[in-house]
Amino acid sequence: MNAMNPIPPVFLQLLADRNGIPAGLVFSGAQDACELPQELAELAAKLPCHFREQVSEALAEELEQAGWRRLPVEQVLRADSPFDKNLPPNVAWVEGDWPLAPPAKPVGNQAASRALALQLVALVTNDADTHEIEALLRRDPTLSYHLLKLVNSLGMGTGRRVTSFSQAILILGRQQLRRWLNLMLFAAREGDVRSAMLLARVSVRARSMELLARETGLDKHNQEQAFMVGMFSLLGVLFGMPLNEVLAPLNIGDAAQQALLSKDGELGTLLALVEAAEQGDFAAVLAGLDEVQLSTAEFNAIIAEANLWMLNVTSDVTGRANA
Asked: For the segment 284-317, what is each residue's pLDDT rounded down to a tens digit?
């Protein structure tokens, strides 16, 4: 730790259930009692939240008071390559980077759906006319279905369900529509066991980027750019293609492109920070926080808030109950 960051960073890692659906969180990073974000109690009220045996008794007591529980080691399987669902009977949770493993090569309808999804990314990012986007969505009912489901899951405060694409445009506006259309792509990968976890992970990453941009003093435009950089950073993983190939037909600004391909600029620094947190890299996170002049207390609150936001986005889409 240092003078600016006397509190250790908190890392929250997603746990999947036996079907590969996001179903829990595990606390890591800090090992001893420290100032915890109040949002941890809110998270524990929404889904199972755990901590590992290595934490001190003082920290364990703090976490238990917030509703977090010890994670039984024998019930957790780590997987960094795609796992099948024929798991040992004792396994309740699956952790690791398996959602980032390359997808199976698409064939038939899956290949056609991927081609349409790539077209959709290009249309939305290049600010195409609404009727062009609507025409493409009508060619793939799965994409349309997931868009409406995602928009409705957000509880837009209108008091009515969104039942058509035109309603979604009217309620969201083009800028927000662009955000949700891109996010929806991660939910609409039929037959891809990674989909639910990828949606959750990209939601946390994109929202963390947006909140970090806000806390470091970037304006609204750059906050939106930060969100999009977080989301686009996993498009290569989603489609099983080099990221530079996915980005080639997209009309994105130089700052976003440099952040995505070489971690350059303010947005690149934020992306490197978020990725370091996902890997539980203490030293890199502390160095990144010093570079952007944020305290670990601020960072910890951002990570907790981003995970709460992810739960709102994914609850209806994945079919997971938040209670």
From this structure: 999 999 999 999 999 999 999 999 999 988 875 5
Structural domain boundaries, residue 147: 105-191
- The continuous run of DSSP H or E covering 23 comes out as strand 22-29
User: For 71-143, where are the E strands, in sequence order?
Assistant: 76-78, 93-95
Contacts of 9 by beta carbon, 8 Å cutoff, 6+ apart: 29, 30, 277, 282, 285, 286, 289, 296, 299, 300
| Single-letter amino acid code for the residue at 223 | Q
Q: Could you read off the pLDDT of 237-292 as tens digits, one per residue?
A: 988 889 999 888 887 889 999 999 999 999 999 999 999 999 999 999 999 999 99
175/258 Cα distance (integer angstroms): 22
One domain for residues 95 and 127: no
Residue 189: what pLDDT?
A: 64
- The rounded mean pLDDT for the chain is 84
Of 39, 80, 85, 30, nearest to 60 (Cα)?
Answer: 30
Residues 83 and 45 in one domain: yes
Shared domain for 16 and 89, answered yes or no, is yes
Q: Are the beta carbons of 162 and 171 closer than 8 angstroms?
A: yes
Q: Is 174 left (phi over 0), alpha (psi -120 to 50) or beta?
A: alpha
Q: How much is the average pLDDT of 2-27?
A: 84
3-state secondary structure of 104: coil
Strand, coil or helix: what is 110? helix
pTM, to two decimals: 0.86
Q: Number of folded domains in the chain?
A: 2
Q: Work out the burial of residue 86: count CB atoms within 10 Å of its CB; fewer than 13 is exposed, 13-18 middle, 19 or more buried.
A: exposed
The tokens of 191 are what?
């037959």
Distance between terminal CA atoms of the chain? 36
Q: How confident is residue 193, by pLDDT bands cut at 50, 70 and 90?
A: confident
Among candidate residues 102, 52, 104, the one with its CA nearest the CA of residue 241: 102
Q: Are 184 and 170 in contact (CB under 8 A)?
A: no
